[in-house]
Amino acid sequence: MKITEAKFAGSSTRVSNGPRRQLPEFAFIGRSNVGKSSLINMLTGRSRLAMTSSTPGKTKVINHFIINDNWYLVDLPGYGYAKLSQKARADLQQIIRGYILESGNLVCLFVLVDSRFDITKSDVEFLAWLGENGVPFALIFTKCDKQSAAATAAQVEKDKAILLEQWEELPPMFTSSSAKKAGREEILAYIESLLSDK
Fold first, then answer.
1. In contact, 30 and 142? CB cutoff 8 Å
2. Is the C-alpha dihedral spanning 177, 182, 185, 190 positive or negative?
3. In the chain, what are the domain boundaries?
4. Nearest Cα residue to 174 out of 187, 155, 164
5. What is the pLDDT of residues 95-136, one digit of tens each?
6. Closest CA to 171 of 121, 131, 118
7. Nearest to 58 by CA among 66, 48, 67, 50
8. Distance between CA atoms of 72 and 106, rounded to whole angstroms?
9. What is the pLDDT, as a whole number, of residue 189?
């Protein structure tokens, strides 16, 4: 897939306040500081489409970007950011879960995981919740440029083993590096394949 156009289409805190135009949606989510904004910018080829920050947990709303006037890329708030107050975490959880359960246009949720570390308890619990609610998702292992290919492969296999303790079948998985644009073609090709099935 070649992305020729990527434009901000609005922010909201609930599905009912999102873009009026109904198009297929592909959403991205992950723990704070997993590299979500950098990945979105890398995929779209727009260096400042999603705002990156050295401060985790900056995204507090649902951001829609219209791609090729054909589908929406959705930037969801991160989860698992400990420095937020209990109320702020609860509010974010309500925004995230409300979107995931209520969006009738969500085709796939891409869950980002840092390739350098074991998949976390909050990641595993979130994936279990997605499974319980029948939400289609895929995993993207980020920041693969921060270590050797062998180290990434070993960590992915370790995370697969952790997930297979709960799952009979694993979701589609991708490895990526925003700095080196690794994984871009594979992820976009997967999105294109799902769009062709619509």
1. yes
2. negative
3. 6-196
4. 187
5. 999 999 999 999 999 999 999 999 999 999 999 999 999 999
6. 131
7. 50
8. 9
9. 97
Residue 146: HSE in the Cβ half-sphere, 13 Å Cα cutoff: 13
Nearest by Cα to 123 from 135, 141, 111, 107: 111
**Total residues belonging to the chain:** 198
Q: Which residues of the chain have pLDDT under 70?
A: 51-59, 80-84
Q: Which CATH number fits domain 6-196: 3.40.50.300, 3.40.605.10, 3.30.590.20, 3.40.50.10490?
A: 3.40.50.300
Q: Which residue has the tokens 């499974």?
A: 131
Q: What is the 3-state secondary structure (H, E, C) of the chain?
A: CCCCCEEEEEEECCHHHCCCCCCCEEEEEEECCCCHHHHHHHHHCCCCCCCCCCCCCCCCCEEEEEECCCEEEEECCCECCCCCCHHHHHHHHHHHHHHHHHCCCEEEEEEEEECCCCCCHHHHHHHHHHHHCCCCEEEEEECHHHCCHHHHHHHHHHHHHHHCCCCCCCCCEEECECCCCECHHHHHHHHHHHHHCC
DSSP bridge pairs for 26: 73, 108
Residue whose token pair is 């109904």: 22
Determine how many CB atoms are found less than 10 A away from the CB of residue 164: 11
Tokens of 108: 């796939």
